[in-house]
Amino acid sequence: MKAANKYFDKLDPLIKTLPDKPGIYQYFDSNGKILYIGKAKNLRKRVSSYFTKDHPLSGKLRVLVKKIYDIQHTVVDTELDALLLENNLVKEYQPRYNVMLKDDKTFPWICIKKEPFPRIFSTRNLIRDGSEYFGPYASVRMMNTLLDLIRQLYQLRTCKYNLSQENIKKRRYKVCLEYHLGNCQGPCEGLQDEEDYNQTIASIRDIIRGNITLVIERLKSLMKEYAGRLEFEKAQSVKEKLELLQRYRSKSTVVNPRLSNLDVYSLVDNPDVAYVNYMKVIQGAIVQSHTIELVKKLDEVREDLLTTAVLDLHRRFESNATEAVIPFAIPPVILELKFTIPARGDKKQLLELSERNARFYRLEKKKQLELTDPERHTHRLMSTMMSDLKLSEEPRRIECFDNSNIMGDFPVAAMVCFLNGKPAKKEYRHFNIKTVTGPDDYASMSEIVYRRYKRVLEERLDLPQLIVIDGGKGQLNAAIKSLEKLGLNKRIRVVGLAKKLEEIYYPDDPVPLYLDKKSETLRVIRQLRDEAHRFGITHHRTRREKGTIKTELTGIQGIGPETAEKLLKRFKSVKNIKTASLAELAAIIGNAKAGWVYEYFSAKIRHS
């Protein structure tokens, strides 16, 4: 491994003297800058693995190892302590090769101010003065909806007066317009006592926390009390508040309301970035939802990604949940949390909903990127495909071929074209096979590839950077032979896509390439294949219908194109249908139609 790291002679003694204890390790470059911070159950084994010859390293890891000039470590008692310390240090130093949490927003909070007759308002600045903060709210709309509900339910002051008992007694303040509009009960003039106001604040605190059931029970009791005292106007006012709360709760309840205090985390993993969605559930209602991105720097596994996200989100949202629903096992990073991996039921439904939120977020980010900077997105996709498929240039123009026939009848083929990774439907072409008899996919592929690029050369059209053949080695070799005849085999990269396992074949290479099933490259190639198949089938169906309509079969009363197609598919030609027995015909199209066909051809034979 010396060749991979020019500082190995300096590092080797450090590595050999590392303890067999849990802890964190830090890699520094020659300028003293932190490159990477990692955790380990056994520091010596973990760090040594980076410098072992037979240890396979990815491209990014090899680049990291080359830059390591110094190693520092910290020993801790347990693997969990190492995980927590790593998380804190990564947040503080943000090393280049650690997972990066992408989140540049400052989210708003709901503040209950620490003061006599507390005000309630939204803020993005947390001032540690004893005030209560609830949030943060990833959705400003959701926070404003909650604040609007509170304003409709309760009359609270909005002024910034210092409403101490001394100031109220001295009558330093006068009621404002909000009092006359019915939005405030006038505590500044002593028209509302502090105990009554604080009871209102207690109910609001429960609503913000999601404990709406407690508030509803409290209001029901109060409504009955007013009605019992024949104070019907006050009872009606409370009833209207009840209806508001019940409408608000009905909009957000998604599962069993007995799920009292629960966090849900899901992860959607992509090659370069992962998305983690967090949902907070109280009494069956989702009161918060937020998705973050984790940009990968090395070959991070999904367990580490989810662990990092859970630590960050749990602290950021100051969660007091006692249980967290997760999709797979991770270390017990937060001791007060019980981790659950549901197989069915309400918790499983919540996990699936959280995953859908993460997928929607990923789709929205992709659409935003395409809208704001389409060329950047295209260039990234082209670079990815060039790297994945080992191409010498970006595949800006890709053409894909597919054959379509029914047991050799009406053989056709299709060619579809993608420009910059997107369908260019004006460039699509279909072909009727002219030189091949019977079902011979190889010969058909050879014919259409030759015809296509002979014309491209004659008309001086643009050549593709990549040709995709829908099929395995046989179809690929047939296409290569045609390109060799035209002298194009060294000018265009050609690959074959096998149907079963979606492996990619190269000419003269018996070992196929298996792409990550989630990769963008495979997604584009699948889309090409599906488009070629759809376009070919459409043309085949059109030609088949025309062909069957012209046959003698559709001239028989009661026999339509579909029945004619069934017969041709089974017997291959009208000649074979003429000599078929009644039983053979009935097995395909039923007794009645078989009788008509049999009688028609029998009559022709008798009169001939």
Summarize the structure.
The chain is of the alpha+beta class and 608 residues long.
How far the N terminus sits from the C terminus, by CA atoms, comes to: 89 Å
In percent, how much strand structure appears in the residues? Answer: 15-25%
Mean pLDDT: 83
Looking at the structure, the CATH topology of the largest domain is: Nucleotidyltransferase, domain 5
Chain-wise SSE layout:
Blueprint: H1 8-16, E1 23-28, E2 34-40, H2 43-49, H3 59-67, E3 70-75, H4 79-93, E4 100-102, E5 109-112, E6 120-123, E7 132-134, H5 140-153, H6 165-169, H7 177-180, H8 194-209, H9 212-228, H10 232-252, E8 261-269, E9 273-282, E10 285-295, H11 302-316, E11 323-325, E12 338-340, H12 345-372, H13 374-388, E13 397-406, E14 409-419, E15 422-423, E16 429-432, H14 441-459, E17 466-470, H15 473-486, E18 493-497, E19 504-506, E20 509-513, H16 520-550, H17 561-571, H18 574-578, H19 582-589, H20 591-607
Parallel strand pairs: 8-11, 11-12, 13-17, 17-18
Antiparallel strand pairs: 1-2, 1-3, 4-10, 5-6, 5-7, 8-9, 9-10, 13-14, 14-15, 14-16, 18-19, 19-20
Helix pairs in contact: 9-10, 12-13, 14-15, 16-17, 19-20
Structural notes for this entry:
By secondary structure, the chain is of the alpha+beta class. The protein has helices at residues 8-16, 43-49, 59-67, 79-93, 140-153, 165-169, 177-180, 194-209, 212-228, 232-252, 302-316, 345-372, 374-388, 441-459, 473-486, 520-550, 561-571, 574-578, 582-589, 591-607, and strands spanning 23-28, 34-40, 70-75, 100-102, 109-112, 120-123, 132-134, 261-269, 273-282, 285-295, 323-325, 338-340, 397-406, 409-419, 422-423, 429-432, 466-470, 493-497, 504-506, 509-513. The strands form four sheets. Strands 13, 14, 15, 16, 17, 18, 19 and 20 form an eight-stranded mixed sheet that branches. Helix 9 runs antiparallel to helix 10 (232-252), helix 12 (345-372) crosses helix 13 (374-388) and helix 14 runs parallel beside helix 15 (473-486). The model has no long low-confidence stretch (mean pLDDT 83).
